[in-house]
Records
---
Amino acid sequence: MTNLDFTTLLPYINLLPAAIAITLQVGLGGFILAIVLAIVVGSLRTRKLNWAVHLVLTAYVEFFRGTPLLVQLFVVYYGLPSFGIRIEPMIAAIVTMGLNSGAYLSEVVRASILSVDRGQYEAAAMLGYNSLQTISQIILPQALRIAVPTFMNGFSSIIKETSLISVLPVVELTKLGNQIYAKTYHPFEIYITMAIIYFVMTYSVTFLAKWLERRLSVWVN
Amino acid sequence: MKRFKLLVMALVVVLSAFALAGCGSSDQKAGDATNTGSTDASLQTVLDRGVLRVGMCPEYPPFESINENNEIVGFDPSLAAAIGKEWGVEVECINTPWEGLIAGLNNGDYDVIMSAMSPEEATAATKAVELSENYYELADVIVVRADNTDIKSKEDLAGKIVGVQDACSAAQAAEDLPNQGIKVAKLNHYTRNAEAYAELANGRIDALVVSLTYANEQAKNNPGYKVINDPLHNVGIAVVAKEGSVALINKINETVNKLKANGTYDEIAVQWLAAD
């Protein structure tokens, strides 16, 4: 077994904050986009829709769920310019992460909405709520409470999946790791350090999720 | 049922659009070439901008790697800087993953690639590129663990497990071994040379194929490896530009020759590539 020598990393430590910042920007940006998409697409998909809208939404969800994120990143950044669509690497990363994660999370939103009791709709209709009021004031607040733990799950995945954007010319944590590795030839020290950083980032989200769940569930107990 | 058919159709359309995007790059370049064929503005664009943008993957010391200040340093950046100095333009090295280099070039992210790329590597990706004269020759050699005694030449690779970095000249050389009558037991492809080295250290592979300069650099840092100096083949490395950038490539050839004549090139080569 190789002897671990973390001191080889010391000269490169000052490069970490910028890479972590990029990882967080892509992770957070992608996550916010994913939430918005998930709520819109997820709630739309629980309703009877115009067939064209239905088709577009289904194609979106199935395409982004059914193909590898790595391929999507490649296509969005390196493929779309063939059609005259040129996107900055950071934007391409955030949009692709958001679209990908949004497709998964929209199904969570859909499932959460379906889990809200039928009686809630009937009661809302009884009280004279129109359909937009029913969904925004009665159904979504209940559905999203159910969705929160899975959303936070999604956030952990998205943070870790940002490692895939190392195929774009963006120096995030994983790519920085690869480049330090290429220079120092100490893979274990570097990847262990990176794993710890990813873990700290995702684990702190767990605390946020617990707090959020407690807050949103106050009225239940 | 009708809806289902429509859904399938839509998926086929979307997927084929993306599939086209994959190979679309070559169509697009063909278009570009016809556009730029008559009026080749490649050189003038760079001079007007005052910046020569060079794409490289800094995971290949001593040709290019990052230093503690996150600057890309090595033979290629220094040579690019010398070229820029001759032209009176700034040189910007753009940190790009190896697998994205050609795509990024087509994308217009940079003007040229200088990333220890051989003409074979570039044209394997796409024929639609302009290549400079080779500005350096390097040999792909075999590296084994220091305690290995049974591999002394490329013929000894027969029956051994060999590792290479994907999509590079060393991989091409290793893939060509069966044509020379040398049947390796298994050829493992890795994303980066560094991974092949880790595998060699772990004992999962018996040997790896890599360029002599990289092998020497590595052997200098780690006595656990031994370089077998029986080159599988020699490859040149060239500056790669988009198809149609003839003026740019001609000017680069001219400048590199000038740098070779006035000794600047040798200084840079000694600084980065002197193997000892």
---
Amino acid sequence: MQLFPCPFCGLRDEREFQFAGEVGKTRPNTSEPVSDADWDTYLNTQRNEKGAAREIWCHLPCQEYFVMERDTVSMDVFGAIALRKDPS
Amino acid sequence: MTGSRVGSGGLIDRTKPLSFCFDGGAYSGFSGDTLASALLANGVRVMGRSFKYHRPRGVWGAWFDDPNAIFNIRLAGDEFPNCQATTTHLVDGMKARAVNAWPTARADLKGGLDYFHRWLGAGFYYKTFMWPDWRLFEPAIRRMAGLGHLDRNTVAGYVSDQLHDTCDVLVIGGGAAGLTAARACAEAGQEVVLIDDHPELGGGLYRRGLAIEGEAPEEWVASQQKAIRQAGGRVLTSTTGFGVFDHNLVGLAEHRGFSSAPRLHRMRAGRIVMATGALDRPITFANNDRPGIMSVEAATEYLGRYGVLVGRNIALVSNNSFSKPAAERLRAAGAEVTECDATRGPIRALGGKRPSCVEIGGQRYACDTILASGGLTPVVHLWRHAGGKLDWRDDLAAFVPGNPGKSMIAIGAANGSFDLEDALAEARNSARSGSVSERRGNYRITPLWPKPGSKGRQWIDFQHDVTLKDIEQAARENFVSVEHLKRYTTLGMASDQGKTSNMAGLAAMAAIQGKSIPETGTTTFRPPFVPVPLELYRGHNRGQMRNPLKRLPLEAVHRAAGAAMGEYGGWLRPGWYGDKSEEEAIRAESKMARDAAGIFDSSPLGKIEVMGPDAEAFVNFIYYNTIKTLKPGSIRYGFMLTERGIVYDDGVVSRLGPDRFVISCSSSHVDGVNALLEAWRQDGNDPDRLFVHDTTANWATITVSGPKAREMVGELGTGLDFSPESFPHMTFREAAFQGAPARIARVSFTGDASYEVAVPAAKAETLWETLIAAGGKRGAGPIGLEALSVLRAEKGYLIVGKDTDGETMPHDLGFGIPRLKKQTEFVGDRSLHGEVAKLETRRQFVGLAVTKPSGPLPVGAHVVDIREGRTVSIGIVTSSYDSACLGEPIALALIERGQARVGEYVKILHLGETRVAQVASPCFLDPAGERLNA
């Protein structure tokens, strides 16, 4: 069981967290035409990186979303930053 | 009778005799014995049967590495299946039976299966029983296979405690190395926890039987333990580290007596010191599975720990230098020991249920017991759980822990340092990081591995009856990867998980392929290290402790009114009231609601407030329907969709002011909707201009619905004008009720004029009593959730998740306009114009009318059609009730092209029975809305 750092609550058990998505995926502007392929990519495609990854997680008890950097192979966690403070 | 108790020595308490039964025979042992040691002391050798051939088996090991002796044990009326005889401590009155044997292990009726071994090789079942169909044979084969049988009674109070704990250093293994390391770390100021799976610390010191640092083993162990405790360290005995998980979490199972569930410690260790020791591995030779053949280590362990001499006339067959002190120790206890060099030539055991002699390179040595040691194998399981690599060492002929992990080190025999002095030096060093420079290394071994092509039946996996010939056959059939070999032959899949068999199995495969052992590799080591009951993982995480019910503020009031309380979407709510039958109560309540009024507790209804300057745009984006045109004081019905366009929730949204909305989502969906709103709020919005706040628990809501509802809410003393002109349907008012704020919404889930009155939870009881009193004189009263479900179905109001499924989009429900007209972006918008959304064959929400005599349709029944001669499902019945008001059964359904079928008759198929129903509009009651707007 992993320990994840919530930027607001500190190190907590992984069962308190929910994966929300990979960083860098933005919703297509649907007020303009969006192709089937672009919408499909938005809905279904994940990079699913092996190794270093930047992901958005939610700490369920405080409901804050944040960006976490971790290694999906070694399970090392490098850090976390509140979503609104993330420069990307 | 070959095994016997020696006069003194060991850790058993000879003043406390215990009696027990095994396979119907009565025996006695001492406090501190395991079942295996007590049986050996009584001269019992045959303690089990193998899995496939039902060959007689004695114990190979003295602790967790024994694969042979597995018992079902009955104690004080409770049955405990699959207990390892070598690790189960004796309790007075135990009645043990060997599994997989009948009537006894000694005289098992299925023992004759062994004569057919020639036809029962690896893959036998799958090759033989393929024709005509494996499934014909499987039940009988499954009945023959398996180990202990489960008793259907549960053991009262068998519940695991689960503790969470942390420490700086966790030392696993309380032998000489572990004790020394724990002491060194504790005295260096680190917070230490030392665990050992035996009840006593000391590990292999008792079988060694020699003084250590000038003290007798017991004394030395006691002084180390004292020093550890004095330095603030903690010691947990009878505790197994069964797995190392991510981020240094170690699962510890603390045994708390035979009939009690073990306690789980989730130990988060800063550093792990693995001092788990090493195991003697078997030698692969002809008939090496016979009772009376056991490991050298086990024989000295039985002597040193339990005071049992396993044989009188012992042939000790070994390829390493550690057998000499063992032979001396056994001789000192009174046995005749012949030391035999295992590397001299082919080995064969002779004799039946007890050995008569062992033949090595043509020379025979008479004996009653054969002790074998093929070398020491470090116990590296936990190292591999943690992701550490293994290195092969030729000088030890063994895998040892490789690259040191960031936070885990291995010391002592577990690290290949089999000599005590080396182990102690490593242990003393473990408080610091860095490795020990020089090892003395007195251990000498001549590698000895299975020889493919050699004669006789040579066992690799004792419990699962995998022989060298099976490995050779697997190789011929190209199951050469160790993972394939394991699954094809079941090598290493016995309850010891390969502790005795894996090294021999992979060495055999390496030899067959002409590869080295490290090239061949090992199979994956997975937790748990030893079997643990499933209860360990569950503990109190069950029932209400796992999934607590949400409770209403008015629960006591409902119970006093005779409510039948039930779980509805996670809430404990009144299903119906009174002591009539469920069916009668529902009919009476729904009729009362239509004739006069029904009063029901709708407190669980979601009340999520969305506030801030960006609230309007946000709510408009979240909802499928256009919300930005909603005026303060008004209410609108709408859907929330997922990005895939699927209906996630329905409900009403009320606008309190320009920057303030209340989202009234389904009762069972509040947490989900709240999470969905938060996710969107923080993704792409300025979270300082937008706030989402769930106030569901703050407000109690009581709804009054029916022709008399207006008169009743008029008695609340709010001063509001409830006339339909000034308070029409789909509006709400803020008011005061007995000095507390109240929100009154005129929305309906029944088809009749309804008022949802929300007050602070503390005022709930007063509000309820006032409304009940107002209702009493008008023939109105409380109704439960069941009657409400009927009322809403009569009107064709859907319940998301019941009348919709994971494919339902809003236009399937008759709400197609926003899809076509809404100008601004909203969640799921693009998905509503995808290929699937445009299909003409989508399932649409409709009603089904049936004639009365045949009764309501079954929910879940298929609506079917005949296409190309085949019956195909074109939909399902989602809700179905016997409507008291309409006087006939009604149903709701999702049917392919349903809206175009209104008026058509369709076939309904359920469990072989066919019915006919007419497709109708889902709204059976008051389609013009006269009652609703009255």
